[in-house]
């Protein structure tokens, strides 16, 4: 295979590199994906299940014999028998940690007194029906089943729907089925891509409409999610994976390279991998390691695509400049492998998740640590946050006034009603206080 080297670039206050600026700019939805997604979604709105089945055969490569999308109990039982014991043990451990983190993140209902005897507060109510998208094309992401529906289960959502593509034989990957069952999926459907998003957003005879769609996906899934926003709620824009590593001369180049490759191997070819370092020596050593380690990996071809167009190694004059660059990139995953990592990590303000110190590879966040690995991509970590248990609940404001509280605020209501020419608003308060 042709040797592909990631470029080593320099970033300084004197002038910004065009190549670095081009790398930092990446639209959250790829060009052309919107147009295709819009056509498929319109067809699903019009023709329902027949359109969903058509695109499942076209894009998922499902067999023509596939006419029932819902996974039955017998298929789940069969999948459980096919899954090896070590994976079952690992999945149960991951599920336990994810659930523990989710429970710790649950907010409690609360109240505060109003000045004249009433009270204000909030309550948190689980959504009724949510849908999780579980990728299974380039890689069967069994971990995503745990990182989505476990949170929904902890939140108290009663109907937990999963969509994941079937293979050529019309079967779902057994490891994904096992993980979905473990995570508490109440319905599982054999459909992926735009068609899965459309079915969950609009509803069909086979797949009832959900209230919210969560989960990552490739460019077309991401485009489809954005287009159905408003029909349903969404978690965030979660597309092709990204990683940034901020490292100094003390970092191990083999470890850094391994971490960069861990995200480059996902398989869409649109992944991004960024090294920011104060040491040119480290950057050169990492570049050598990237090439050598790639040769030992299964996914050489997709990795080569990322190394050619989605990976850069940037040398900065100091850690502060490195922090600035990383915050501008706003990565999905941010590793901090420098001296005083905790102190430096506090200055990273735009990242989906931060992995602190040399013993925290990004992969522990993907599979084992506890926080969900469903994180914002495409620079949207600057204004979106990763998936949490609270994404599966509604926050409802509570207001309970006594007469004294209304008397105290009536003049405020009347003033705004007058300025905004909303007489009825003002009267609804004043009429209660008329003698």
What report would you give on this structure?
- The structure is a single chain.
- The protein has 435 residues and is α/β, with parallel strands linked by helices.
- Helices cover 44% and strands 16% of the residues.
- The protein has 17 helices and 14 strands.
- The strands form three sheets. Strands 1-11-10-9-12-13 form a six-stranded parallel β-sheet, with helices on both faces. Strands 6-5-4-7-8 form a five-stranded parallel β-sheet, with helices on both faces.
- The termini are far apart.
- The model has no long low-confidence stretch (mean pLDDT 95).
Percent of residues in helices: 40-55%
Question: Main beta sheet: strand number and arrangement?
Answer: 6 strands, parallel
Distance between the termini: 89 Å
Overall pLDDT confidence: 95
Instruction: Determine the CATH topology of the largest domain.
Output: Rossmann fold
Strand order of the largest sheet: 1-11-10-9-12-13
Radius of gyration: 25 Å
Counted beta strands: 14
Q: What is the CATH architecture term of the largest domain?
A: 3-Layer(aba) Sandwich
Structural class: alpha/beta
Shape: globular
CATH superfamily of the largest domain: Nitrogenase molybdenum iron protein domain
Portion in strands: 15-25%
What is the CATH first-level class name of the largest domain?
Alpha Beta
């Amino acid at each position: 295979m042709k040797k592909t080297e990631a470029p080593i670039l320099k970033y300084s206050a004197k002038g910004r590199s065009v190549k670095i600026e081009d790398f930092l700019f990446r639209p959250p939805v790829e060009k052309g994906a919107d147009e295709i997604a819009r056509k498929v979604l319109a067809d699903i709105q019009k023709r329902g299940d027949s359109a969903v089945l058509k695109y499942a055969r076209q894009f998922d490569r499902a067999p023509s014999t596939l006419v029932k999308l819902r996974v039955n109990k017998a298929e789940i039982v069969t999948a459980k028998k096919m899954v090896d014991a070590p994976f079952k043990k690992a999945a149960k451990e991951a599920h336990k940690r994810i659930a523990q983190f989710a429970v710790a993140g649950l907010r409690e209902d609360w109240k505060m007194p109003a000045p004249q005897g009433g009270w204000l507060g909030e309550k948190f109510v689980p959504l009724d029906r949510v849908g999780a998208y579980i990728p299974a094309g380039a890689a069967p992401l069994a971990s995503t089943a745990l990182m989505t529906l476990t949170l929904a289960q902890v939140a108290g959502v009663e109907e937990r729907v999963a969509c994941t593509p079937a293979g050529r034989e019309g079967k779902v990957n057994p490891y994904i089925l096992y993980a979905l069952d473990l995570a508490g999926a109440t319905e599982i459907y054999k459909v992926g891509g735009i068609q899965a998003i459309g079915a969950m957003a609009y509803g069909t005879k086979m797949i009832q409409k959900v209230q919210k769609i969560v989960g990552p996906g490739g460019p077309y899934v991401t485009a489809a999610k954005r287009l159905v926003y408003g029909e349903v709620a969404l978690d965030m824009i979660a597309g092709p994976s990204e990683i940034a590593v901020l490292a100094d001369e003390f970092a191990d180049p083999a470890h850094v390279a391994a971490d960069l490759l861990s995200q480059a191997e996902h398989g869409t070819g649109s992944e991004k991998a960024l090294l920011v370092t104060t040491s040119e020596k480290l950057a050169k050593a990492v570049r050598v390691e990237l090439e050598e380690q790639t040769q030992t990996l299964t996914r050489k071809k997709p990795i080569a695509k990322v190394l050619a167009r989605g990976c850069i190694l940037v040398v900065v004059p100091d850690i502060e400049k490195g922090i600035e660059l990383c915050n501008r990139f706003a990565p999905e995953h941010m590793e901090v492998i420098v001296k005083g990592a905790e102190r430096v990590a506090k200055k990273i303000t735009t990242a989906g998740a931060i992995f602190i110190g040399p013993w925290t590879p990004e992969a522990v966040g993907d599979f084992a640590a506890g926080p969900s690995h469903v994180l914002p991509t495409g620079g949207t970590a600057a204004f979106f946050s990763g998936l949490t248990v609270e994404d599966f609940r509604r926050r409802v404001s509570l207001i309970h006034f006594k007469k004294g509280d209304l008397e105290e605020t009536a003049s405020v209501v009347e003033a705004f009603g007058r300025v905004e020419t909303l007489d009825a608003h003002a009267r609804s308060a004043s009429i209660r206080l008329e003698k």
